[in-house]
Amino acid sequence: MKIKSLLLVLFLATASMSFAQEVKYQLSSHILDITQGKPAPDVKITLSKQEKNSKWKQVDEKFTDKNGRIGDFVKADGKDHTGIYKLTFHTAPYFEKAGQKSFYPFIEIVFELKDNEHYHVPITLSPFGYSTYRGN
Questions:
Q1: Residue 103 per-residue DSSP state
Q2: Strand 107-113 relative to strand 56-63: parallel, antiparallel, unpaired?
Q3: Residue 81 labelled as part of a binding site
Q4: Which segments of 19-136 does DSSP mark as H helices, in order?
Q5: Where is the secretion signal located (predicted)?
Q6: How many CB atoms neighbour CB 97 within 10 A?
């Protein structure tokens, strides 16, 4: 009987670990290169937050994955992350690697997190223009 109880406890412990909730993030981004109709992989994006003295403090820096995405900025950990943020898309190296001339060496998008909701801030990109919007 003791072995059965022990096996049941081990099974329940393992099952509860496998059903644990995945980590969620409050901010994500995506880059679509509209000249190619494809995602823009391996582009560095820097996240900064505006401090009370109006200076910018770098919070994080990541590279887009093969699908042009970064899904894990600002961990949704129950803390208050409201404030004014800036995403800097470092586009010059991306276009240089593609052998293309471009007009914007980097693109800065400033926005405000006003609550604990998820924010998706993507850009559509070409060598001589870009567009952004709040996605989902």
A1: S
A2: unpaired
A3: no
A4: 92-97
A5: 1-20
A6: 10
Q: What is the model's pLDDT at position 24?
A: 87
Q: Token pair of 71, please?
A: 């899904």
In the structure encoding, which two tokens stand for residue 47, read together?
A: 């996240």
Per the prediction, the chain carries an average pLDDT of 88
Tokens for 31, please give them.
């880059």
Is 69 marked as binding a ligand?
Answer: yes
Nearest to 88 by CA among 68, 58, 51, 125: 58
Give me the sign of the Cα torsion angle 106, 111, 115, 118.
negative
What is the set of domains in the chain, with CATH numbers?
23-132 (2.60.40.180)
Mean pLDDT for 109-117 is 93
Instruction: Evaluate if residue 104 carries a pLDDT over 70.
Output: yes
85 annotated as ligand-binding: no
CA torsion 88-89-92-97 (nearest 10°) is: 150
